[in-house]
Amino acid sequence: MTTLVVCLDRTDDVGRKTGLRSPVVGWEAVRALVTDVGLADPEDSGVNTLLESLRVAQNLRDENEEVVVAVVSGDRESMVSADRAVAEQLDDLIADYDPESAVVVTDSAEDERLIPIVESRVRVDSVDRVVVRQARDIESTYYLLKQFLADEELRQTVLVPIGLTLLVFPLLATTVGPAEGAAAITTVIGLFLLYKGFNVDELLTRLARQTRESLYSGQVSVVTYVVAAGLTFIGLFVGALGVSNLGETPGVVIPTTQFAFDSIPWLAMAALTASAGRLLDEAISEEPIRTSFLNLPFIVLAVGLVVRGFSAYFLEQQNVIEPFVVPAAELGVVSNERFVMGAGERLAVFVVTAIVVSLVGARIASVFSDSSGDAERGDGGPDAGTAGGGDGTDASLESARSADATADPDAERGLDRTDPELTDGGADANANPNSSRDRTR
User: Fold this and answer.
1) Which one of 32, 161, 305, 433 is CB 3.0 to 4.6 Å from 354, fit for a cystine?
2) Domain span at 106
3) Measured distance CA(43)–CA(40) in Å, rounded
């Protein structure tokens, strides 16, 4: 029975301090590693973990068990790469020594996260976590603070907000009052927590990277996005002007509806411009255009028509806007008679137009999708052989079948030569010369 005593080091502290690559296998190699780590950093708890691994291995050897002691380290780049490195090293150890069980030695909760990786490859009989005695005393607080201050990310996340709060609060308390200052600081802290909680920094970094890649690749959507942003600001400005022209209007329903009525044409144009640029990028690329990009401009236009129609309906009901007047035409000559379209009729026209636009978009997307699929099959895709295109395999098979049917009258009459009763070598044919095949002929 071979037992693997493995010391886990997820963050590769051993490799960083000694310059050695893991895994380190063997009693003498691990004992030499203890000296190297101790000389590099005597305060590191990893020294105690390595010594504990040697002690466990020695106890198992005293019980007449075959023991292999090893140190497995991760990677410093990321947690995923660290876990994958540990898994790869464990696979090599298991392939070389074929242990039946394992004893895991760790010194922190961070290293214990690797235990499921070990359990997925070999049976784990024991987990030994090393706790240094000095860490239980009050004096260890100094070392904890020292490690905390040595971590740059923790300093920026915790100490910087606390320092800014202690500096800003006295200024706000003396200028605007203690209550207002506390409220302002609480608001800023809340925004900071939301910023970190929603990973806004990562989103901004990803957006900047995508923008840089788009600029370097010369995509048309970069220009259309800028134009769309300008149209969006115009729409917001026009909507705000429409609300300001209402004067003193009680409630928020009418101003909101007026804002939507005035701004939706510009916002719809902004969305159409952005989607058109993305569609042009898809058309320029070598890959076929996806159906969603073809259908997006029509959906945007349909939604804009619906929002415009409903906002006009509510504003006309409140006499904020005038009814829509259509001049009547007789034989091409405009007369004095006019057709006044009511609020319900106007809403119906907008809704029906939006439905027609969405149906047209779906139809166009379907046609382009079918044509791209036919083009792929015509180029020798998987369906080319089934449809009879490409290299004409089906035609060759059909001609071969016709030739076999002509040469063999049995095949022409639909007889199956694989039937034992119809073959010359079957049991019934040997027993009875007047077999069913001869009688059929």
Assistant:
1) 305
2) 2-136
3) 9
